[in-house]
Design a protein that fits this description.
The chain is an alpha+beta fold and 161 residues long. The chain contains 4 helices and 8 strands; from the N terminus they run ββααββββββαα. The radius of gyration is 15 Å and the shape is globular.
C-alpha cells in the first residue's frame, strides 16, 4: 500500500549540540507510536529503502535496550543502540543513541508525538555531548535517510488501521 506523504521532515539546529527533526504524519499518534516501537513494524520503514535490516530489537521499558542494524545495498553492516530512559505511551520516548563505531559519542533523543485531528507531529530533539559529535552527525548525510524513512513510517502507520 502506498499513500501520499503528508510532509517533509524539517531538520534544524537549535544549538551547537542539538539537531531537531520534525514531521507531520497523516495518522493518529497511537498508530505512529506502534510503528516506532514494535520491531515488526520498525522493520518496514527504518531501512529507508537503502538496504536490509539485519537486527531490530526493542525492549520497550525504562532501562530496556534497543538495537537496530542494517546492511546497505552497497556497503557494510552498521548499527545503532541505546537505552530507554523515559516512556509515556503514545506521547514521548527519551532514549540514548550510540552509533556503534563511535561508542563514546552517545546522544540523547527526546521524541514526542502530538496529535491534532488525526494528524500527528513527531518531534525528535537529538542532544549530542559535543558540537563536534553533532557536526559529524549532520555531515554524515543524515538528512536524506530520515526523509525516505519517514515516508515509509507514515505508510506503515496508516496500514495499521
Amino acid at each position: 500500500m502506498t499513500a501520499a506523504t503528508s510532509g517533509t521532515a524539517k531538520v534544524t539546529l537549535p544549538s551547537v549540540y542539538q539537531i531537531l527533526i520534525e514531521r507531520e504524519f497523516a495518522a493518529p499518534a497511537s498508530m505512529v507510536w506502534r510503528a516506532i516501537t514494535e520491531p515488526e513494524l520498525v522493520r518496514q520503514w527504518w531501512h529507508a529503502n537503502r538496504g536490509e535490516i539485519t537486527t531490530c530489537e526493542i525492549d520497550l521499558r525504562v532501562g530496556g535496550s534497543w538495537r537496530y542494524a542494517m546492511r546497505p545495498f552497497s556497503g557494510e553492516e552498521f548499527a545503532f543502540y541505546g537505552e530507554f530512559l523515559e516512556i509515556v505511551p503514545n506521547e514521548k520516548i527519551i532514549q540514548t543513541e550510540t552509533f556503534e563505531p563511535f561508542p563514546d559519542a552517545t546522544a540523547t533523543n527526546t521524541t514526542t508525538l502530538t496529535e491534532r485531528h488525526g494528524t500527528t507531529r513527531l518531534r525528535t530533539l537529538v542532544q549530542h555531548q559535543t558540537a563536534q559529535a553533532r557536526d559529524m552527525h549532520i555531515n554524515s548525510g543524515m538528512e536524506p535517510g530520515p526523509q525516505d524513512a519517514f515516508d515509509l513510517l507514515e505508510q506503515t502507520a496508516i496500514s495499521i488501521a
